[in-house]
Amino acid sequence: MIGQSDAIPEQQSPRSPAPKLGWEEFSRELVEFFASIKLAMFLFLFIAITATIGTVIQQNERPESYIQEYGENTYRWFLRLGFIDVYHTWWFTSLLGLLCVNSLTCFYKRFPGVWRSMKQDRVSVSLDFVKGMKQQAEVSIANSKEVVSQQLAQHFIEKGYKVLAKNDPGEVTIYATKGVLGRVGAHMAHLSATVIIVGGLIGTYYGFQEFGVCLEGQTYHIPRGNFDIKVDKFWIDYHENGSVKSYNSTLTVIDGGKSAVTKTISVNDPLVYKGIWFYQSSYGDSWDQVEVARVNIKDKATDKVLKTVDLEWHKEQAVVDLDLTLSITDFVADFAFNSTEKKVFSKTVEHANPAIRLAVNERNSVQSTPWVFYQFPDLFDIKESKYQFELVAYKPKKFTGLQIAKNPGINIVWTGSTMIVVGITLSSFIFHRRIWMKIVPAPEGVTVYVGGTTHKSQIDFQREFRKLTDKLRTF
To answer: Nearest to residue 217, comparing CAs of 346, 403, 397, 356?
Structure first.
């Protein structure tokens, strides 16, 4: 028909089906992904960010501490995201697990090749192989191949090389190598990251770290160790200028009702019992006890101070001339009252609003237990009494702060740390050097073809190779 093209359209050839992704291809891609440097950098970046969050935001504090510092809404987000206990969250553990997989995959992919290279016979090489080395030279020597090969072998042995030789018809091949531990060291350092992470995870999930505030003379039960710890003594040593020199605690472990061990601990010198470490961590003023308090006894009518007494904690003291008996029964550093439970407590550990509770027995007729405030001396009044009591000074009882920890993975962490130090040292100061020599007879002696390579420190190896060729000319 007019207007239609007479050309016959070409028949489309059938498309060949796309090659299927088999298990070998999939496993190869998977290994490439987990062994990639990009994945390692990504993991290191996010671990550094999360570790920074865990450092900036105090971990495992009481809810009111976060609410006071950040606000209630921010605290709720911290709770959802796990920012108040970063190192126990599933996503932080997943990052560490992926880093382990990355490290192990790199080791699996690279180390077998290095090991095969170390173990295989490298003497059976061709002359073209030696000539193809980056560092290569050709030296003519007027001597027999037996003498030259013996001199070369002796020279490399004196230089600390391991020497292998092969005598073929018409030529002698010598292979010299040293510093193979330098290549092993790099992989040892790589593997150490996994060992450290595994040890850290074991310590995180099967260990614990707590902080205890302990008072001298008190005994505390350690439930995770099923024994008791008694604080026999706590004291502070001072320099001549009044600054703190050291603070120390003498601790006794009571196991099964018997004293097991006694040790005086100080900073960086802990007590260890049943795998639990007791560190001297801090000290401070107790918020619920005092050693002694100085109280003025005043006449209500004249506001005159009749007597000043120093009252010791929980010790009754008689004031005979005033027909009084006084004792301290309670102390709070920052007075607060719970109206629901009808209970007095210290709302902070700071000595912001200190008060003592007196037990007053006056003429065996007036008995009361008033709270006497340091900052508000006239706040409470005993109606039946003719005296007013005023807190003028007090000495708080010192507490010792003990960090109590158990880390079953610590030896694994130390093993990994040793591996990384040894690996980096070997990798940084020992370099794997390999040199091949072909000794071929020539009309006026022999021709020595030399080729060598190293995986690091190319400049030093070039200098050594140049000295070798100069030495060959003296043979």
So the answer is: 397
